[in-house]
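Comment on this:
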Amino acid sequence: MIRDFSYDVLKRSVDTPSNKSGNEMITWQSIDTVLLDMDGTLLDLKYDNQVWSQLLPQAYAERQGITAKRAGEQLLSHMREILGTMNFYRFDYWREFTGLDIVQLHQQATGLIEFLPDAQAFLKALTRANKNCVVITNADRQSLQIKEPVLQLESRVERVISSHDYGAPKEERAFWQALQQDLNFDPARTLFIDDTPRVLAAARKFGIQHLLAVARPDSQQGNRDTLGWPSFEHYRELLDHMP
């Protein structure tokens, strides 16, 4: 499949804050709440990349009777048009747009669902440190239903919240307002970790004080350009500096 068609590349964006490592930026005694993205942050993005960059274009090409290259170009063009909106993340939207069973496509790749290295150890360390840990994701609830049996996130953190619960993606201020009303957290004492620069930018604009980017969200690919956001490659870097 064409490497230019990549779900991963769509997760990049603009905004270039100070370029420091994660260890230089975290003062754990100043943090009460840890907000964690799921795909590409806790979960290895190789799963989603396989579905959206490989299986979907191949199936769409077969359905439309076009080449895989042309299918990838059409899908990528439309993804760019709706990037950052709720429709970008809705399974039902993509089912209607492509005529394909999106859930079934995801189920084909469930063998790839797994945590990034040492992400589980990081979650345990947060519990030991008495941090309020919440997963916040743009993933469709149908996606969560597929991943939960493998990841068992709901038993590892305080809550798992989808932006679909609020009707606004993490890219929008409305999401953060709803989240704060829901959780009553202090933005100045909150750490947010995500692999998407534009989402980190939205969090910063809302007032989240501590922000980290995941430099290698897909274990089968090299490091991503985090566009200046303080970042880390491996959770061991954070674990080694936790109290």
